[in-house]
Specification:
277 residues; alpha+beta; Arc Repressor Mutant, subunit A; two-stranded antiparallel sheet; 9 helices; 10 strands; 40% helix; globular
Length: 277
């Protein structure tokens, strides 16, 4: 589930990895009611993935747009506070941070996650995460860091391919067969982050079938060597959502595993009730 490990007291920042092969296909700009707005969002998404200043030429090349179009889009986004200039190029604007914080504060399920994760005996000392499924990516919404000496870096608002995370596999397994086929059909190549990452779609589908049968997902070092993750999807919610707990593999025991899974189910049930209100 995680992409970086760091000894406490604070997390290290790492370069974002490009997992474009597992990202779902997007509609053409002409297929949406407002192409200009759609292209502006594409610009913001590209800048968010790169995480370093981009020139107009780089944005144009990355999105296959004319430089004049990109220049107009950036000027409009700058006026709205969505992007800003630097000496080296264009960056995301602080307005996006303000909007993202407002969204999280207004989402009741995030507040309930933060409260409930601290009350469950198996989870309160561990790293627990709340995320939703967007296309074939996990989008992280909230995290409880726990009390362990090693912390896991899941930047809030960042993404990770669903097929290599406990959260993502739990949510994929919760989809009906037609929706699962549609989403997996947008992946051209499975990401291989470790030797245990799934190499074939047949292996992935067999894993998802096991998740459906037992009711929870396991990421057994498929994302990060030395890290194990358990994930449980919320039931009966409009947007695929899941919670997870991550631990150093050597700390996972046969005796402690049932408590972790039980608490994840309890947490998922509480959040599902909030989400349905």
């Amino acid at each position: 589930m995680t992409d970086l490990l760091d000894p406490a007291p604070g997390p290290l920042r790492g370069q974002a990895r490009d997992h474009g092969a597992a990202r779902g296909a997007s509609p053409a700009a002409g297929a949406v009611p407002s192409p200009a707005v759609y292209r502006a969002v594409q610009v913001l998404e590209l800048m968010g993935r790169r995480r370093e200043p981009l020139t107009i030429t780089e944005v144009a090349g990355g999105l296959s747009l004319a430089k004049s179009t990109v220049s107009n889009l950036l000027s409009s986004l700058e006026a709205a506070g969505m992007v800003r200039r630097s000496r080296r190029g264009w960056l995301l604007g602080y307005k996006l941070f303000e909007l993202s914080r407002s969204m999280l504060v207004s989402t009741e399920v995030v507040g309930e996650f933060r409260r409930a994760a601290l009350t469950l005996p198996g989870l309160r000392g561990e790293t627990t995460v709340l995320a939703v499924l967007e296309g074939v990516d996990v989008l992280y919404l909230a995290r409880n860091d726990g009390q362990q000496a090693v912390r896991f870096v899941n930047e809030i608002g960042s993404r990770m391919p669903a097929v290599v995370t406990g959260l993502g596999k739990a949510m994929l397994a919760s989809l009906d067969d037609d929706e699962l086929d549609r989403r997996l059909g947008t992946i051209s190549e499975l990401p291989r982050l470790t030797e245990r990452s799934h190499r074939t779609f047949a292996a992935l589908r067999a894993d998802l079938a096991r998740i459906r049968a037992r009711g929870y997902a396991v990421d057994d070092e498929q994302n990060t060597v030395g890290v194990m993750c358990f994930g449980v999807a919320l039931e009966g919610v409009a947007t695929p959502t899941a919670v997870s707990v991550s631990m150093i593999t050597r700390r996972v025991t046969a005796e402690g595993r049932p408590q972790l899974v039980e608490d994840l189910h309890t947490l998922a049930g509480r959040l599902a009730r909030v989400e349905k209100l």
